[in-house]
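JOB MANIFEST
job_type = single_chain_structure
chain_count = 1
residues = 213
[input]
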Amino acid sequence: MRSLRKILYRTITLVLLMTGPAACFFFGNCPDVLPYFSIQGLRMSNLVYTGQTTAQRPYKWRAVEDNEPVYWNNYFVRTYFESIFHAQYENSNGYGLYALDCNSNGERGSKVGVDTMYLVTLQDYNSQYLQNDTLNNIMLINDELLNIQDFKNFTDLSKYTQNNSDVIRKGYFDFKLTEPPLNSNDEYRFKLIFILKSGEEFEKISEPVRLTK
């Protein structure tokens, strides 16, 4: 009976190794490179630059609270890509592509680059940009916002699309505006339209925010 249990245990262990994530390690199915991500949608978060840190908030920005007035030049929006992660791998027979669990952090970026994007105001923003106008001319982008110095490094849209035309390198980007709103303390919402080189198009509307000047 004891020998039978040992055989059964070894058989189950072997099956798990052959079919589970460990198979990637033992049989070389894991790619040598980090995997990619595929964009499925957008998620937006209103943030405010504070210039201060706390133990609970180690960064110099935080999420905007409901109905909180925010100075317009300290306001920015973080846009996350809702993605699935995958690794492109060709098997030993040369057939097919497999989605592996070995690495799933998407550090090699998206396989499809960005074509363009449009930022649309859903209210009259100022005298130059009315409801449903595109704000691309007063929109700056940053996909390297990690510390206080990076807050000064927002650039125009054309640089972002140029740098990410073949591969979208980061899973998020931030945008802010270069002009103040017409009315202080009014509520604003923005719609982002993001278009890939493949023709896929994604839209997302930001949560309302009260901007001051």
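[summary]
The chain has three helices and twelve strands.
The two ends are 81 Å apart (CA to CA).
exit_status = 0
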